[in-house]
Design a protein that fits this description.
The chain is an alpha+beta fold. The chain is built from five helices and five strands; from the N terminus they run E-H-E-E-E-H-H-H-E-H.
Length: 197
Protein backbone atom coordinates (compact mmCIF):
# COMPACT_ATOMS: atom_id res chain seq x y z
CA UNK A 1 0.00 0.00 0.00
CA UNK A 2 1.28 3.47 -0.94
CA UNK A 3 0.28 6.97 0.14
CA UNK A 4 -1.53 9.10 -2.45
CA UNK A 5 1.51 11.26 -3.24
CA UNK A 6 4.23 8.63 -3.01
CA UNK A 7 7.06 10.16 -5.03
CA UNK A 8 8.83 13.50 -4.98
CA UNK A 9 7.07 15.83 -7.42
CA UNK A 10 9.38 18.83 -6.82
CA UNK A 11 6.73 20.65 -4.79
CA UNK A 12 7.84 21.88 -1.38
CA UNK A 13 6.04 23.08 1.74
CA UNK A 14 7.59 25.44 4.29
CA UNK A 15 6.75 24.10 7.74
CA UNK A 16 7.03 26.52 10.65
CA UNK A 17 9.04 25.12 13.54
CA UNK A 18 7.93 26.55 16.91
CA UNK A 19 10.42 27.77 19.47
CA UNK A 20 11.65 25.39 22.12
CA UNK A 21 10.63 26.10 25.70
CA UNK A 22 14.21 27.10 26.49
CA UNK A 23 14.22 29.64 23.64
CA UNK A 24 10.91 31.20 24.59
CA UNK A 25 11.71 31.47 28.31
CA UNK A 26 15.15 33.09 27.97
CA UNK A 27 15.07 36.89 28.16
CA UNK A 28 16.38 38.58 25.03
CA UNK A 29 16.34 35.35 23.02
CA UNK A 30 15.02 35.01 19.52
CA UNK A 31 11.35 35.79 18.99
CA UNK A 32 10.96 34.61 15.40
CA UNK A 33 9.97 31.10 14.44
CA UNK A 34 12.11 29.18 11.99
CA UNK A 35 10.78 27.33 8.99
CA UNK A 36 12.06 24.24 7.23
CA UNK A 37 11.30 23.13 3.70
CA UNK A 38 9.88 19.62 3.19
CA UNK A 39 9.01 17.86 -0.07
CA UNK A 40 5.22 17.54 -0.23
CA UNK A 41 5.55 13.78 -0.68
CA UNK A 42 7.21 13.40 2.77
CA UNK A 43 4.33 14.88 4.78
CA UNK A 44 1.89 12.24 6.12
CA UNK A 45 -1.41 12.60 4.26
CA UNK A 46 -4.62 10.80 3.33
CA UNK A 47 -7.11 11.11 0.49
CA UNK A 48 -10.46 12.40 1.74
CA UNK A 49 -12.23 13.15 -1.53
CA UNK A 50 -12.36 13.49 -5.27
CA UNK A 51 -13.72 16.19 -7.49
CA UNK A 52 -14.41 14.79 -10.93
CA UNK A 53 -16.08 15.72 -14.15
CA UNK A 54 -15.99 14.40 -17.70
CA UNK A 55 -12.77 16.32 -18.34
CA UNK A 56 -10.69 15.96 -15.18
CA UNK A 57 -10.19 14.36 -11.80
CA UNK A 58 -8.86 16.22 -8.77
CA UNK A 59 -7.85 14.33 -5.63
CA UNK A 60 -8.27 16.10 -2.29
CA UNK A 61 -5.72 15.13 0.34
CA UNK A 62 -5.46 16.23 3.93
CA UNK A 63 -1.90 16.57 5.26
CA UNK A 64 -0.70 16.47 8.86
CA UNK A 65 2.64 18.27 9.30
CA UNK A 66 2.80 17.50 13.04
CA UNK A 67 3.22 13.83 12.14
CA UNK A 68 6.39 14.31 10.10
CA UNK A 69 8.96 11.81 11.34
CA UNK A 70 11.68 9.46 10.18
CA UNK A 71 12.10 5.71 10.48
CA UNK A 72 14.40 5.09 13.48
CA UNK A 73 16.58 2.58 11.61
CA UNK A 74 16.89 3.65 7.99
CA UNK A 75 16.21 7.39 8.42
CA UNK A 76 13.62 7.56 5.62
CA UNK A 77 10.58 9.76 6.10
CA UNK A 78 7.41 7.85 6.94
CA UNK A 79 4.54 9.08 4.75
CA UNK A 80 1.95 6.34 5.13
CA UNK A 81 -0.29 6.97 8.10
CA UNK A 82 -1.15 4.07 10.42
CA UNK A 83 -4.73 2.85 10.10
CA UNK A 84 -5.35 3.42 13.82
CA UNK A 85 -4.35 7.09 13.54
CA UNK A 86 -6.58 7.61 10.49
CA UNK A 87 -9.48 5.80 12.20
CA UNK A 88 -9.33 8.25 15.12
CA UNK A 89 -9.35 11.19 12.69
CA UNK A 90 -12.33 9.84 10.74
CA UNK A 91 -14.29 8.89 13.86
CA UNK A 92 -13.65 11.91 16.08
CA UNK A 93 -12.97 14.76 13.63
CA UNK A 94 -14.02 14.36 9.98
CA UNK A 95 -17.29 12.38 10.11
CA UNK A 96 -18.78 14.38 13.03
CA UNK A 97 -17.82 17.64 11.29
CA UNK A 98 -19.52 16.61 8.05
CA UNK A 99 -22.61 15.51 10.02
CA UNK A 100 -22.80 18.82 11.88
CA UNK A 101 -22.45 20.96 8.75
CA UNK A 102 -24.77 19.33 6.26
CA UNK A 103 -28.48 19.75 5.80
CA UNK A 104 -30.86 17.67 7.94
CA UNK A 105 -32.24 16.03 4.79
CA UNK A 106 -28.79 14.47 4.17
CA UNK A 107 -28.59 12.85 7.64
CA UNK A 108 -30.02 9.44 6.62
CA UNK A 109 -27.34 9.12 3.93
CA UNK A 110 -24.34 10.16 6.02
CA UNK A 111 -22.23 7.99 8.27
CA UNK A 112 -21.92 9.44 11.75
CA UNK A 113 -19.21 7.07 13.02
CA UNK A 114 -16.41 5.01 11.54
CA UNK A 115 -18.10 1.82 12.70
CA UNK A 116 -21.24 2.74 10.78
CA UNK A 117 -19.20 3.57 7.65
CA UNK A 118 -17.39 0.23 7.85
CA UNK A 119 -20.66 -1.64 8.37
CA UNK A 120 -22.34 0.03 5.38
CA UNK A 121 -19.31 -0.54 3.13
CA UNK A 122 -18.97 -4.26 3.93
CA UNK A 123 -19.25 -6.49 0.93
CA UNK A 124 -19.76 -3.72 -1.63
CA UNK A 125 -16.71 -4.81 -3.61
CA UNK A 126 -18.08 -8.34 -4.06
CA UNK A 127 -15.88 -9.87 -1.33
CA UNK A 128 -17.36 -10.86 1.98
CA UNK A 129 -16.25 -8.32 4.56
CA UNK A 130 -14.41 -6.23 1.96
CA UNK A 131 -14.47 -2.50 1.40
CA UNK A 132 -15.92 -0.98 -1.71
CA UNK A 133 -15.45 2.57 -2.87
CA UNK A 134 -16.98 5.06 -0.43
CA UNK A 135 -20.29 6.67 -1.25
CA UNK A 136 -20.20 10.25 -2.43
CA UNK A 137 -21.05 13.00 0.03
CA UNK A 138 -21.71 16.11 -2.06
CA UNK A 139 -20.69 19.30 -0.25
CA UNK A 140 -21.12 22.85 -1.49
CA UNK A 141 -18.26 25.33 -1.14
CA UNK A 142 -19.97 26.91 1.88
CA UNK A 143 -20.58 23.50 3.49
CA UNK A 144 -16.93 22.55 3.03
CA UNK A 145 -15.80 25.81 4.65
CA UNK A 146 -18.09 25.04 7.60
CA UNK A 147 -16.73 21.48 7.80
CA UNK A 148 -13.20 22.92 8.08
CA UNK A 149 -14.26 25.22 10.95
CA UNK A 150 -15.95 22.27 12.70
CA UNK A 151 -12.83 20.13 12.26
CA UNK A 152 -10.69 22.83 13.88
CA UNK A 153 -13.17 23.07 16.77
CA UNK A 154 -13.20 19.27 17.26
CA UNK A 155 -9.39 19.18 17.36
CA UNK A 156 -9.23 22.14 19.75
CA UNK A 157 -11.88 20.60 22.03
CA UNK A 158 -10.03 17.26 22.05
CA UNK A 159 -7.91 18.61 24.94
CA UNK A 160 -4.55 17.45 23.63
CA UNK A 161 -5.69 13.98 22.53
CA UNK A 162 -6.19 15.24 18.99
CA UNK A 163 -3.26 17.69 18.88
CA UNK A 164 -1.44 15.53 16.31
CA UNK A 165 -4.07 16.63 13.77
CA UNK A 166 -3.54 20.36 14.36
CA UNK A 167 -1.95 22.49 11.62
CA UNK A 168 -3.56 20.29 8.97
CA UNK A 169 -3.80 21.59 5.42
CA UNK A 170 -5.30 20.44 2.14
CA UNK A 171 -3.60 19.44 -1.11
CA UNK A 172 -5.53 19.41 -4.36
CA UNK A 173 -3.87 17.15 -6.94
CA UNK A 174 -4.88 17.37 -10.58
CA UNK A 175 -4.08 14.52 -12.94
CA UNK A 176 -4.61 14.51 -16.67
CA UNK A 177 -5.44 18.22 -16.83
CA UNK A 178 -2.48 19.51 -18.81
CA UNK A 179 -4.43 19.83 -22.07
CA UNK A 180 -7.40 21.43 -20.29
CA UNK A 181 -5.27 24.15 -18.72
CA UNK A 182 -3.04 24.72 -21.76
CA UNK A 183 -2.60 28.38 -22.67
CA UNK A 184 -4.89 29.55 -25.41
CA UNK A 185 -7.68 26.97 -25.30
CA UNK A 186 -8.98 28.55 -28.51
CA UNK A 187 -9.33 31.91 -26.79
CA UNK A 188 -11.81 30.69 -24.16
CA UNK A 189 -9.51 31.40 -21.21
CA UNK A 190 -6.91 34.07 -20.55
CA UNK A 191 -4.52 31.54 -18.97
CA UNK A 192 -4.14 28.19 -17.21
CA UNK A 193 -5.35 29.51 -13.84
CA UNK A 194 -8.65 30.68 -15.32
CA UNK A 195 -9.09 27.39 -17.17
CA UNK A 196 -8.54 25.43 -13.95
CA UNK A 197 -11.02 27.58 -12.01
Amino acid sequence: MKPGIFKHNHAYIDITIPQSEADSSMPGSRTEWLSKQFPMSTIPHACIGRISSALLTLNLYIAFPRMIHQHPVNGWRIMLMPKEVLDIFWDRVLLPSIGDCTDVSCAPYLKQTLEEAQYKARGRDGCKGGWGPPKTVPLSDDDFMEVQKCMQACIRDGEGELSMYESLFFILEGKGIKLLTKDGQRGRFSGPEEALC
